[in-house]
Amino acid sequence: MSLSVPASPAPAAEPVLRPASLVGRTRAGLSDALAEIGVPEKERRMRVGQLWNWIYHYGVRDFSAMTTISKVLRAALAERFTLDLPEVTAEQVSSDGTRKWLLRMPPVGARDRGAEIECVYIPEVDRGTLCVSSQVGCTLSCTFCHTGTQRLVRNLTAEEIVAQLMVARDRLGDFPGRTPPEGAFVPNDGGRFVSNIVFMGMGEPLYNFDGVRDAIEVISDNEGLSLGRRRITVSTSGVVPQIEALGAEMGTMLAISLHAVRDELRNELVPLNKKYPIRDLLDACRNYPGLSNAKRITFEYVMLKGVNDSDAEARELVRLLKGIPAKINLIPFNPWPGTRYECSDWDRIERFSEIVFRAGYASPVRTPRGRDILAACGQLKSETEKLSARARLMLEQSEAEAAALAS
Ligand code: SAH
Ligand code: SF4
Fold first, then answer.
1. Residue range 87-387, CATH number
2. CATH code that applies to domain 27-80
3. Which of 7, 87, 291, 314 has the highest CB neighbour count under 10 A?
């Protein structure tokens, strides 16, 4: 069972453009804001440091709480800017503690009603992982993924990416002096509630390289949100030309959505493979900066019944990855309305995982989380978005196929 809590009223018919929020900005972005309100250049660095501490370390929601900053400057800031977070339009809590927030981003123009994205928090025994989105929707149309069916697509700004972590920490009471909400997971070692971030929500992060890079700069800054780069994983469907730059400029952990061991099948499941085939993708992985046994690449492999789950494919998978410091994550397919795929049977997944395990890869099956609130991988999609033409076509096709089978 899940609990759905409407968190704020429905939006007004005409969106009102609010002053810009400072939350999510880089140090350079905050410096620009100070310049806008006339703070002299020589003072800006020090002021940025103060703002940084209040916004990212303490998570304050009001300029008046920034007691180390003069009243005059606080007033000038409040007149021009806000510390607003995206609006939480719904919060769902799964029976396993997974939380999903539906966030409405502030409108970016007079005609924009504010994009909606989802963000999921997954508490585990030794960590709290936040799954963030890098785009609204995704242009890549992987055939097994719900996000690819969303019609509206745009890159999220760095601020909007950082804001997802800010909302999570705000909601979880994960800032100094805050109290967690009733029933929230509280780490028993006194650690942060959100200890890890994975870019596995909506969108292809490497198609929003600059936004993701700037967001990671803010998130990993150890005077603020302080989430180390080793605790941040960027998952890509295989945008080969950007993989080296990801390692060099962001230094995060890398996950590859592999899902198939032959180009013919991968072309179908992950159409980007036609542009960057498996061999090129694995070459880019071999050259990933900083790769070592302590910093392995995670290969994600979604288990699709009768499609990619044979013993031969498991053996080919370990053969392909030979020589790459790797972890393998077998992901049970999460079905969504209208999909043509099914999740592999449990004994098939076990058999597949056994072969992978014998080849030296530990605990490879990812437990589905938050299934009751449609929060699991590939299911992130705002409920308000209507099915795209492609999804409708798929739905019609699968209905036609089901009807044909039944007759
Ligand atoms: N676009 C990036 C990151 C977001 S997808 C990428 O593709 O890597 C995050 C992960 O969820 C990917 O491995 C993706 O292939 C997987 N996924 C997508 N839809 C899924 C579904 N319905 N069931 C299980 N995993 C899914
Ligand atoms: Fe986009 Fe990743 Fe979904 Fe493919 S799996 S459609 S790349 S979000």
1. 3.20.20.70
2. 1.10.150
3. 314
